[in-house]
Amino acid sequence: NYKFKDRYLLGGSFRIDGSSRFGKDKRYGSFPAASAGWIISEEPFLKESRTLSFLKLRSSYGLTGNAEIGNFSSLSLYSASAYADIAGIVASQIGIPDLSWERTKQFDIGLDFGLLDNRITGEIDYFSKKTNDLLLNVPLPATNGFTSITKNIGDMENTGWEFVVNANI
User: Fold this and answer.
1) Cα dist from 118 to 57, 63, 64, 97, 163, whole Å
2) Which of 3, 22, 24, 149 is deepest in the core (most CB within 10 A)?
């Protein structure tokens, strides 16, 4: 994090996460993020305002990963079973070695404000969130002995506005 002249803000992060839930070549995911802000009310042209006590413009962009699936979902598994009183091994799960992280890219921009010595405060925010390679259980025909398999399939997008107003009467 960096703050310059009490009004210009920069932030950044970079993480590498690993999970044994994914295939051996897909275990690690890189997830960077960055943010910036400008406290406009600290500028000389607004510093002496009697009405506007706080005004901040902010924005951020980042990637996150999701690994919330069952353990060993990328592996083919076998279990012991008896057939006609003879010990044996049968497949209990179909593995997907290319199973990888679900990734979400999120962009936010917002304006925070305070009026009348911060007796009235609020926020106006816009967000856009796009998720790729969703980790979902895909149904399979039961005739093969399995009813579902975990795969990276599908995308999803959420966008919207948020408004908040608070008052200290």
Assistant:
1) 16, 33, 34, 55, 17
2) 22
